[in-house]
Write a structure and sequence with these properties.
Layout lengths: L1 H22 L4 E7 L8 E9 L8 E9 L12 E8 L3 E9 L8 E8 L7 E8 L4 E10 L4 E2 L1
Antiparallel strand pairs: 1-2, 1-8, 1-9, 2-3, 3-6, 4-5, 4-7, 5-6, 7-8
Length: 152
């Protein structure tokens, strides 16, 4: 009987504890790195955490993105802005506009999305080019994966 209890405790540690640890990875932040290594000054950061909106609603996940020293979007073609883009492969994606700050040269681009209800596993976060008139989403400029998210 003691061996059975010991086996159950060991199984519980390996089965229950990892899923408990995954549930506690928020809040966290990650550095978004440029796809093109020639963009040496371009960087970004994503903050991921739970938000409580309009009570008595349940908590949702927020992704906030900030990108700095990004090239003028038009330097890549028919683009005039940047968007935050996050996705779980083959499941769901979220797309939201990033807004420039008023600096004259090389503005900071920032935005957020507050309505995520999906489990935040295997999430890729990107800053992508966008055409605000045609709603065409362009290629990724910065990116990271939630597995690199650092708790704080």
């Amino acid at each position: 009987m003691k061996q059975f209890v010991l086996v159950m405790i060991i199984i519980s540690i390996f089965v229950i504890y990892p899923s408990y640890a995954k549930a506690n990875t928020m809040p966290c932040s990650m550095v978004l790195e440029p796809i093109d290594k020639k963009l040496t000054n371009a960087k970004g950061v994503a903050l991921i955490y739970k938000v409580q909106l309009r009570p008595p609603s349940f908590a949702r996940t927020n992704i906030s993105i900030l990108g700095v020293h990004l090239p003028e979007p038009s330097s890549f073609g028919n683009y005039d802005s940047y968007e935050g883009f996050a996705f779980i492969p083959d499941e769901i994606s979220w797309r939201f506009r990033l807004y420039p700050t008023p600096e004259q040269y090389s503005p900071t681009w920032a935005g957020r999305w507050d309505e995520i209800t999906a489990k935040m596993e295997n999430v890729e976060v990107q800053v992508r080019l966008s055409n605000s008139k045609t709603k065409k989403l362009g290629p990724s400029i910065l990116r990271s994966n939630i597995k690199y998210c650092k708790e704080f």
